[in-house]
Specification:
GO terms for molecular function: 5-carboxymethyl-2-hydroxymuconate delta-isomerase activity; acetylpyruvate hydrolase activity; metal ion binding. The protein is mainly beta and 281 residues long. It contains five helices and 19 strands.
Length: 281
């Protein structure tokens, strides 16, 4: 299933099942509305449907507690930045306020001159869990989505740790929906392609991960309890590069879909006193 979170005029955000129709365009793709939150308990179809083109897709999940990122999980990416691969996964946290959805703007902070994209497969946790054995990881995964682990690379270097460089508002685009039907084997063999203004910058495969999805979930659950809706970013292939306001970055992962966001100048955004929450929420 493809589970989206969406908004339509005059209604509150809702979850729905995305129904893609492959009939040459004779019928529109639709989203069928669900009651409640599929990550919180049982849901049902309401019978209401909307053309997918007429709704606004939101971030498919707002993590209840945390986003856990994994660094240097592709050897070629580690090498391109002059780093080595550690024996254990290199993990960091991103705040849930960094989450935005499809087509929401990535805001370039004035503090960085080297804003970079990192196209990644994201794992969405479906149940509370701790100390998960590798052979039982499939039981705790709700599904997968596309992520962009946006990074202020110069800040990452000068701060010598990653919280600020990866934690600004808008630095975790997620979408377009959560795919819940992939097996672990299928998720371990997906193409990951990132384009900047239509030019291919990254093209890799989840098969190239140093630490597999089961290894990552087991390792992370060994030191922190994972909650439904928590997101694990599994690392990025080689090819990361700078992006600037006015450009658009798009990430496509086979069998899941594509996530696209424009980049805007943070100097033109409002600050203290705003009533607006991050765009994807």
């Amino acid at each position: 299933m493809r589970i989206a979170r969406y908004a339509s005029p005059g209604t509150d955000p809702a979850y729905g099942l995305v129904e893609l129709v492959d009939d040459g365009g004779d019928h529109p793709d639709t989203v069928a509305t669900l009651t409640g939150d599929p990550l919180a308990g049982p849901v049902n179809l309401t019978g209401e449907r909307h053309p997918l083109a007429e709704v606004r897709l939101l971030a498919p999940v707002i993590p209840r507690s945390k986003i856990v990122g994994v660094g240097r999980n592709y050897a070629a990416h580690a090498a391109e930045l002059g780093n080595t691969v550690d024996a254990n996964p290199l993990v960091f946290l991103k705040p849930n306020t960094s989450v935005i959805g499809p087509d929401d703007p990535i805001i370039k902070p004035v503090e960085t001159d080297d804003l970079q994209f990192e196209g990644e497969l994201a794992v969405v946790i479906g149940r509370i869990c701790r100390l998960v054995p590798v052979d039982r990881v499939a039981e705790v995964i709700f599904g997968y989505t596309v992520a962009n682990d946006v990074t202020a690379r110069d800040v990452q270097k000068t701060d010598k740790q990653w919280t600020r460089a990866k934690g600004w508002d808008s630095f975790c685009p997620l979408g377009p929906w959560i795919v819940s039907h992939l097996s672990l084997d299928e998720a371990a063999a997906l193409d990951v392609t990132t384009t900047l203004d239509g030019e291919v910058k990254q093209h890799g495969s989840t098969a190239d991960m140093v630490h597999s999805i089961p290894e990552l979930v087991s390792y992370i659950s060994g030191f922190t309890t994972l909650l439904p809706g928590d997101v694990i970013l599994t690392g990025t292939p080689a090819g990361v590069a700078r992006m600037v306001p006015g450009q658009r970055v798009s990430i496509e992962i086979g069998s899941i879909g594509a996530l696209s966001n424009p980049i805007v100048d943070g100097a033109q955004t409002l600050g203290y006193g705003d009533e607006e929450s991050p765009a994807g929420q």
